Amino acid sequence: MGLPNVSEDLSSEMEVDAFRRLFPLRYFERHLAESIRPDGRPLGKARETSIFLGAVASANGSALVKIGSTTILTAIKMEVMTPSLESPDEGCLAIDFHMPPICSPIVRPGRPAEASPVVSKQLSDTISSSKMIDLKELSLVSGKAAWMAYLDIYCLDADGALFDAALLSAVASLSHLQIPVVAMNDDGKIVLVSEEDGQKREQEPVNKEKRKLTLRSIPFSLTCILHKNYILADPTAEEESIMETHVTVVLDTSGQLISLYKPGGPVLAYTSAIQDCAALTRQRVKELKSFLDKANSAMEVE
Amino acid sequence: MAGKGGSTPATYSPSPTTDKKKPSLFNEDLARPDGRSFHQCRPAFFRTGAVNAASGSAYAEVGNTKVIVSVFGPRESKKAMMYSDIGRLNCNVSFTTFATPIRGQGSDHKEYSSMLHKALEGAIILETFPKTTVDVFALVLESSGSDLPVVISCASLALADAGIMMYDLVASVSVSCFNKNLVIDPVLEEENGQDGSLMITCMPSRYEITQLTVTGEWSTPKINEGMQLCLDACAKLAKIMRSCLKEAVSDSQE
């Protein structure tokens, strides 16, 4: 009795794999007709999400974010710069998204991946549009010294929806950021003030204590795939490669639209489809906000 | 907003106030900066399967040095490459910009890719995948001393995770020389102040060395002592790596 079942099960499993590989679009459409995805998710559900703050000990702020298998590591290094003449009271954010070759079979060492500068630009625009950070908070001495925050975002595992995970990681690391205490020495250079030196009070600290940035309205995003009459939230890399129409909606915590990004694709984005995507995103924003709050409160306990 | 446009302005990292003139690395009790004895390694942690998108991958933490390695392949070689009866190995080591205390310093280790390649080549059975290429990509997330030995050990675990046939796991440890003292598995401070260093990459079960690197001035007895120290440490490290692989297998079976 056992043998026929074993061979039958094995051959049917191989057939499913072959069908998936040879006819990926039909494979997915067979699932969509049943309102389910190959990994078992309903159409509008995002993958499991986790946030870990303080992943890089040597950075001033850092966060590791996983959405499904997609893994993004962000670290912030604070350096001192001379502010520009146009804005002497403001610091700067420099956001860079990196896709090292470890994260995907497509990426090769040497030339940067095509997706990297696109995501970098999206992130910069989103964070500046949302006005989450007041750049005046990064000022130290007017016209002479200000903070430059380098946000380096590394994709460690690319399995779809990279922008969503990258934005969440950037936001989480900014919420974790601790600005160090510094003072201006005789040469006019900014130097770190350690706790021991603080007692001597040789130099007056420019900022009194380690402090956190004030995050005003926090943006969160959700990427959806439009395919015929279906809307799939939070796609995997396989889904992204098979179906071509992606829409990314970014909302902030007050429900305001920060950005809408639709890079081509054959499916037309009617008003109703955009509204559905926005509704899914609104629901996702609440989820992500609670995740971020939990991660921050966990950090405060430590 | 204007500050973001144009070229990035020159920035510098604020340094500590007191200019301590190279404090002695070892205090009166001859203890190391992190309290270890001279011949004691930092705790090592390994995990396979860190990157889903890769054929094989591994994550390693040794002290504060954190490394992640992905293996892709065997896959088709680039067309520009000549025909080869045996497989090819391609290695690349890179640092994150935040890996070092000063941002962006990691790009100075251009020779690491070649050294990783030489270290692994002797251990992989290249005849098992003719005409194809195995790519090994390593990313150093945090650099805290002895980076290359950690990369090499982690890479051999990633190759095992990918199912590439090897003669043995490859373990690597380095030792630093201070006058007459040998210090194993140095941290960043020790590496910066060392007189010489010695790194061994070996296959512990076969007791064969795939790579030996010596810098600085060493006497022959000192080299022998250093080699013995490293070989003993590699054997212990290989045990940790093997148990990691066994755990991964038992986990997947459950």
TrEMBL record, chain A:
Its main location: cytoplasm. One of its GO terms (molecular function) is mRNA 3'-UTR AU-rich region binding. It is found in: Cytoplasm; Nucleus, Nucleolus. The keyword RNA-binding applies. GO terms for biological process: exonucleolytic trimming to generate mature 3'-end of 5.8S rRNA from tricistronic rRNA transcript (SSU-rRNA, 5.8S rRNA, LSU-rRNA); nuclear mRNA surveillance; nuclear polyadenylation-dependent rRNA catabolic process; rRNA catabolic process; TRAMP-dependent tRNA surveillance pathway; U1 snRNA 3'-end processing; U4 snRNA 3'-end processing; U5 snRNA 3'-end processing. GO terms for cellular component: cytoplasmic exosome (RNase complex); nuclear exosome (RNase complex); nucleolus. PANTHER family: EXOSOME COMPLEX COMPONENT RRP43, EXOSOME COMPLEX EXONUCLEASE RIBOSOMAL RNA PROCESSING PROTEIN. This is Ribosomal RNA-processing protein 43. It comes from Glycine max. The lineage of its organism: Eukaryota, Viridiplantae, Streptophyta, Embryophyta, Tracheophyta. The gene is LOC100776087.
Automatic annotation (TrEMBL), chain B:
Keywords: Cytoplasm, Exosome, Nucleus, RNA-binding, rRNA processing. InterPro entries: ExoRNase_PH_dom1 (IPR001247), ExoRNase_PH_dom2 (IPR015847), ExoRNase_PH_dom2_sf (IPR036345), PNPase/RNase_PH_dom_sf (IPR027408), Ribosomal_Su5_D2-typ_SF (IPR020568), RNase_PH (IPR050080). One of its GO terms (molecular function) is RNA binding. CDD domains: RNase_PH_MTR3. Residues 7-17 have a biased composition (Low complexity). GO terms for biological process: nuclear mRNA surveillance; poly(A)-dependent snoRNA 3'-end processing; rRNA catabolic process; rRNA processing; U4 snRNA 3'-end processing. GO terms for cellular component: cytoplasmic exosome (RNase complex); nuclear exosome (RNase complex); nucleolus. Transmembrane segments: none annotated. It holds the Pfam family RNase_PH. It is found in: Cytoplasm; Nucleus. Residues 40-164, 168-229 form the Exoribonuclease phosphorolytic domain. Residues 1-33 are annotated as: Disordered. The keyword NAD does not apply. Belongs to the RNase PH family. PANTHER family: EXOSOME COMPLEX COMPONENT, EXOSOME COMPLEX COMPONENT MTR3. This is Uncharacterized protein. The gene is LOC100816271.
